[in-house]
Amino acid sequence: MPLEAISPRRALLAERVESSWRQPLLRLALAWSVLFALFASDWAEMARLYWDISTYNHILLVPVIIAWLVWQRAPQLAKLAPQAWWPGVALVAGSLFIWLLGDISGTATLSHVGIVTAMQFCVVTLLGPRVAWALLFPLAFGLFLIPIGEELVPALQMITAHITIALTHASGIPAVIDGVFIDTPAGLFEVAEACSGVKFLIAMIALGTLVSHVCFRSWPRRAVFMLAAVLLPILANGVRAWGTIYIAQSEGISFAAGFDHIFYGWIFFALVMAALIAMGWRFFDRQVDDPFIDTGRVINAGWPDRLERFNGNGWSITAAVAGVALVMLMWSTQARSVEAELPARIELPEIEGWTRSAVSHGYPWEARAGGADHKLVGTYRDRQGRTVDVIYALYAAQEDGREAGAFGEGALPPDGEWRWLASADAPRGATGDRLQALGLHQRVAYTWYRHGDWTGSSRLQLKLSNMQDRLIAAPQPTIMLILSAEDTASQNAEETMGAFIKSTSPLPEWMDAVAGLD
Questions:
Q1: Domain boundaries, position 307
Q2: At 31, is the pLDDT very low, low, confident or very high (cuts 50, 70, 90)?
Q3: Same domain, 232 and 215
Q4: CA–CA separation, 46 vs 193, rounded Å?
Q5: Which of 360, 507, 516, 517 is buried most deeply by CB count within 10 Å?
């Protein structure tokens, strides 16, 4: 085919984009490509979470939704003139600094927040604040790309358990609740992590946000709809859990569990989602042909004028964005190489009034300390026959895969039979957890972290301390100490561990001595 026959078609494709937009969009594409390339491992990890973890499956649709939202605004956007904006480079740098803090401390959520917001701020930087204002909702909706929400599981478990026990009593079924366990005539039920309803709540919040924007113009109506989008899945999850218990009373636990799996997974929450839309339908006040952007208002607004004084050369600003990304990546590489020096060998010491004993548990239990450079596990017994389990973990640095405060680390690994039952009274500075296995065995665990001169149980404080170490290249080791004792007819867990702690007092100095830091 002759070349002249192809050229007009190519020209028609190019003309679909306004001439004033072509180079800005090219620069934005280049900046995004650089960020994707430099932080490819983080994007790959996020993609794995989207695909493998059901809580985040809905995020696979978010890029498509964002593209649709931008497409709906395309006719109005074509009337605006994008301009590169120098202050936006500082916004990108701030986002990538958040990524840096997450990367050097093993805090994946911070890393994900950083790279997602950096992409958003690239739009502000390379298209300008006026265009970013016109794209405010699609940009904000991009925050749903961040895989967060698992942190809500413990709270949602308790909420679901309380709703379930209330409905169970209201339906005339005798039941007793103990933490997340509900004992009924048909058997013992657990409101497990998978039953918390977190994945549907997160998806409903995203859906509610989209519907509130697309279908409503009134802010009060939007607020009411969003409130319904949050409350309805929580209440519905409690009803679902109650339904499982109710069916089990007559049909048995096996039948109820199978029915719950099928109905919950394929039907029930689809009906809840449809009910939410149906309830809001009659109150929708946005017409189908209403534009999403008031172009005249955006063009004539005066406040962006003050910001646009800092517009600059687009290619120079694009280069600055790439330079900032490279600096942050190099800083991370240097910081992650910083680790504290540790002794080649450490041992649990002798403790007055206590002797080392063979491990003997009513039901097997072991805390997790993944990636620790040294991990010591021992059991101590006193003259009265009381026993305390000691788990001591020492880390040269904290990062992904070797982080004392990470999810699943510590006294309650997620892949065993032990479940969190309730908080337990703990000594000052420690976290206390009461655990239960199979509805029969209980134990209490106290957890401390130590870093430098600080001893406590705050995971946030631990992360901040480690971030500071690596940023200023002043490494200090991290210690995790877990004391645990079984609660039995012959042993009170809290009293037993209280006696043990008195024997090791002062505990922070004892922790340092084990690591050879005194």
A1: 17-148+295-335
A2: very high
A3: yes
A4: 21
A5: 507
